[in-house]
Q: What sequence folds into this?
C-alpha cells in the first residue's frame, strides 16, 4: 500500500480559500488514481473529487464544482485540492485516498474501492 499524508487544513472564514495537499510514499505514485473525500460530523463520508493516474481525467462533486479543483504532480508524488469560496457546509475532515489502477484515464468515486487512506485533515469554515 501507499502511505498518504494530508496537509493544508485549517480554520477559514466563509468565502475564503485553502489548498489541501496529499503526499504519497512507499509505492509508485503514477500507478494510482487518487481521490479526496470528506466526512462531516454525523454524516457519511462523501466523495469530493477524483483524478486519474495520468491527471488527464478528473471528477468533482456537484456541491464543489466551480469552487474546488483537483490536480496532481507525479514528480512530487502529490495531489492537490485547491478550495475557493468556502462555505460553512464544507466543514469536515478531508481524506486523501489512493487506488491502484491499470487504466491511465479512469478513476473511481466509490470509497470502498480505494486501497489506502490518509489520516485526514480538518477544514472548518466559519460563517
A:
Amino acid at each position: 500500500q501507499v502511505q498518504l499524508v494530508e496537509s493544508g487544513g485549517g480554520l477559514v472564514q466563509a468565502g475564503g480559500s485553502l489548498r489541501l495537499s496529499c503526499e504519497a510514499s512507499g509505492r509508485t505514485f503514477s500507478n494510482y488514481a487518487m481521490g479526496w473525500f470528506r466526512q462531516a460530523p454525523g454524516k457519511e463520508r462523501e466523495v469530493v473529487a477524483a483524478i486519474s493516474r495520468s491527471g488527464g481525467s478528473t471528477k468533482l462533486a456537484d456541491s464543489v464544482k466551480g469552487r474546488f479543483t483537483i490536480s496532481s504532480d507525479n514528480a512530487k508524488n502529490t495531489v492537490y485540492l485547491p478550495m475557493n469560496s468556502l462555505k460553512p457546509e464544507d466543514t469536515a475532515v478531508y481524506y486523501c485516498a489512493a487506488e491502484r489502477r491499470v487504466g491511465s484515464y479512469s478513476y473511481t468515486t466509490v470509497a470502498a474501492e480505494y486501497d489506502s487512506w490518509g489520516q485526514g485533515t480538518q477544514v472548518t469554515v466559519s460563517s
User: Anything to note?
Assistant: The mean pLDDT is 96. The chain is about 0% helix and 45% strand.
